[in-house]
Amino acid sequence: MSPVLITGLVIAGLCVLIAIGVINQIVEKNNLEKARQRAELNDRMRRCAILSDSFPGQMMTPALKLLLSRLELNLGERLLALDKKNAALEARIAALNSAIAKGDDIPVENAPVKVLTEAQAKEVRLLMEDLHTLIIWANKQGQLDAPSAKRWVKQIQGMMVMLHIEYFSNVGQLALQQGSAHKARLAFERGIQHVRKQPNPADYQPQLAKLEASYAHANKLEQTQQKPNLDENSELAEGLKSFESDDDWKKNNIY
After folding, report:
1. Using N-to-C axis directions, what is the helix angle for 87-100 and 62-82, rounded to 10°?
2. Total-model pTM
3. Where are the transmembrane segments (predicted)?
4. pLDDT tens digit sequence for 56-66
């Protein structure tokens, strides 16, 4: 065997080894990318399901239930293309299709949540923030067009205002029941301030009128009770300020 032939065989063998290594890298990269996509789609589906099941009943509408179901269905169909033998996923997709087919008659079984504590209010707010993030992501992925996304973002902002109103009103009414007109007045006052600082306070005029009437009642009642120690730190005031001041979720918008 000539040296030229031997050299040629060695070079050919090296080329084969390099080709095998490159192919293995490409396959591994593709497998990693598919695993990443599956993980992301699974996570988004889970978020849609949690929002659909956990959103407070007083804020869940058929339109919102349909939106979440459609987004989850789209994610599920994309996931099924990567995981074709997933029986549980196929069942979930069938259930979503059945619910979506009912249109505006889609069942809304979410229980109302009476928001009485700062912890409850923050929990509901986190759900709204997650919904906001989901809307932004769906728009960027092409699942939701810009006009629809903007409309939903505006509705979420409105729901956030209503959450504040409900929280302050409930805290105030509870304080009145407990005989603390001072705490009640403070809660109603926070609610009024929150509504008035909105860019569209006229949209909440009925709620504002009710808060103002409750504030006037609590203020009048407070005059007949022992005046509070103004130097004492108010845990309620600090809690209300803490809940009201965190609006970072509003910074992501549709453009």
Report:
1. 150
2. 0.79
3. 6-27
4. 999 999 999 99
